What we know:
By secondary structure, this protein is an alpha+beta fold. The chain is built from 30 helices and 23 strands.
Amino acid sequence: MRKTSFCLRRAAAYFTVALTLTAAADAGATIKPGDPIPVGPQVTVGTLANGLTYYIQQNGRPEKKLELRLVVKAGSILEDDDQRGLAHLLEHMAFNGSTHFKKWQLISYLQSIGVKFGADLNAYTSFDETVYMLSIPTDKAENVEQGFLVLEDWAQGLTLDDGDIDKERAIVLEEARSGKGAGERMNKQLLPKMFNGSRYASRLPIGDETVLKTFQPAAVQRFYRDWYRPDLMAVVVVGDIAPARAAQLIKAHFGQLVNPPAPRARHYAPIAARSATEALVITDKEAAGNSVLIRYPVRPAPGHASFADYRTKLIDALFAAMLGQRLQDLTEQPAPPFIGAGSALSRLTPRYQSYSAGATLGRGGAAPAIAALVQENERARQFGFSGAELERSKKDMLRLYERIYSERDKSNSASFVAEYTRNFLEGEEIPGIENEYHYARELVPGIGLAEVNRYAAATIPVDAAKLVVYMGSDQPGEAAPTPKPAELLAWTDAAARVKVAPLPEGALAARLMETPPVAGSVSAQTHDAALGTTTLTLSNGVKVILKPTDFANDQVLLSGARPGGLTQFAEADVAAARYATAVVASMGVGSFSPAELQKLLAGKAANAWVDFGQYTDNVGASAGSDDIETMLQLLHLRFTGARRDPALFQSFIAREREGARNVMAQPAAVFGDTLTTAMYGDSAWVARAPRPEAFSALDLESSIGFYRQRFASARGMTFIMVGSFDVAAVKPLLATYLGSLPTPELALTARDVGLRPATGVVKQAVYSGADPKSVVSLNFTGPATYSKEENLRFQALLEVINIRITDVLREQMALIYSGGMSGAISRIPYGHYTIGATLPTGPEKVEQVLAATFAEIARIKSSGPAPADLDKVKQNWRQVQRRAMRENSYWLGQLQSAVTHETDPAALLTLEERIGAVTAADIQAAAARYFNLDNYVQLVLYPAQKK
């Protein structure tokens, strides 16, 4: 759905610089610090005579797809006092009528060519920009022409009819309602302080409710005239199109756009640097958790122009990674000072940044967290980092560049348009991945420890004015009462006076496994030419299905499943068993704690995990192509190396217990918990919102015992590996690490414990929350017989009714902003279906929402879907399927499902044919089967009743 983006950009924990790369050329020249970073030849950047900027790149991933963006340097910061919220409302109006598309015609047309609202068609408004996103199939030239026409209309062709504007205000007010809650209430107190009185604090994109209710349409029209002009716009075109054709279309559709005769100056709001230290305590009874933030004075964000700037960004990424690792290490203490923490230089707006440190609090509250944050920053400032820390971070950084470089011909167009959007808005460099890869290979090895430590000393503030903030529940718990502002300042000052010492660097093992296990062997091998799969049977009975692909150059995915899961345990044990895999994972693997493991794996891309499903034991893993052996070693250790560490167990309990402490004060958790009870009673077999007492009751030995009860044996497991590997090369590795897994006897049938949903009609009202918000939840269940064809009919039914929910409940009646239905037909442990509808709205609109939803259900049962709506669904499915057939994750999921449910995996090869066979009559019949009005659960959330 259309969305409003409001998020203060934070520094990524790991190497943001390397995550924004593209594809380019001239990489051999020696880098000179003062030289400007060139624009790579992979992209054509130009400017029309009217000032509009454009970016064009031809890219074949995914095939027959074109990503289009209209980027406008105009957001909520430019609103006049009578326009607060109208930059965002104007974004909504882009879908409500224009020169070439009448109201509702645009979305309907785009859906008819396979574009899905929300996934392929979207927009967002932020402080300084508005971005419109459109993904178009290019299998017909007409689609491309129309796509550019859509962007042209967005740019300067919106109708902005007075009546349509008045109707849209109701939808925007519903969106504003959906954002209400503890976070919104707390931000109203925080942001004026965070922005230090800047205009940003009073120009949140969602706007002011009084303005939204009372504004005149002329105010929206004025914003459009003032700010939607070519000198503030960029058009980004990336995908399956010839650059010359793209340039021709840009000039034809945007060359005639005009700037106002007397344009308003486009100012960027200044943010003053903080001059005095201040503390702020913000509490709310519905807060999800407690946290502290120490924000130091803002400073202008650095430029991106030169290689010196680029090198500084590399140094900053290394610094942030090393400090982040130190803070993560602290969470592994038996009584950790916080649940999680971060400390880095982060961007506050496109033009300002600030150093900050923050933490999610544990049982000890704010005092130990502040002490740890301040002292770890000071330790890094005074003494820097060790050579070993830097070398590990450099290995990780270079491996990440290497992986992105290896995928340079397989990168999706969406990643490129995001980068070019940032270039236009923030000036981010765009030299391309080939250049960036070579820049990194030349620059990173030369970054020395002394240089990084000087950067740390200069970047971490000392004796600077700061804002110290506590945010959390007004019922923080028995061990840590809500602090007072004076206490926050006192703790911060006391922590700064503590004398810190350099961090000792402990010895680290050289390898994950000292000696490999005694290898098994391949006892049988078969090949499926149609699917391109090879199935191995190993000497211990374990099976492996291999699907080598060229979809990516440096990606290997692995999964495994077998009958088992939580229902294998006694009912009295299932609550504790539910957390067993998380408990064991928190203690590391083999002889390594999680922190030690992360350090040992520096420069490698490999991971492996296990968990319990309801009726299955599940395995997952991933790796780069050069790290398959490491991935398999990790997987072997997950089966054979469950680690016992009482200190880390206590750390896990402390973190999880604190994280669950205030959960039931949140309306969403209360509502979800009540829905579970309404459908399944007090059954222990159904997961509920976690309570602190659930973690207090966990026992270390029992948790390890539950884990080993299932994962000490690989019997019955079929592993599936998909990605960029050679079958002959991986066979010895599979025989060594999977063929050697123990396979003692194990129960391998899905156990039906009698879990069944409520029958009949159940209606219940739930009262929770301080805001005027409601949620309507409808849940249909019943028996079902699964087949590939029936599942398509079932899912098509849900897709069609979601189109109607958007068209009727949102666009025509303005009852909701977002919402819809989802569901599944399940085969384990018995054939049944579930459909759930979630429709957020206002308390005064509940009855209308219910009536409108049941009217749509009745309509589809009596008349079936409109043929045009079914065609939209089928066309989108075809587009999605063609794209998915070139994705490793899709093949992995389909092959795993076939193994789990013992079906023919070759069915995925004929999916398009089966999509074409679905008829309107099929959908009507499905509606009659699955919308049983004698068997559903209806819950409605209302605000808490005032006493």
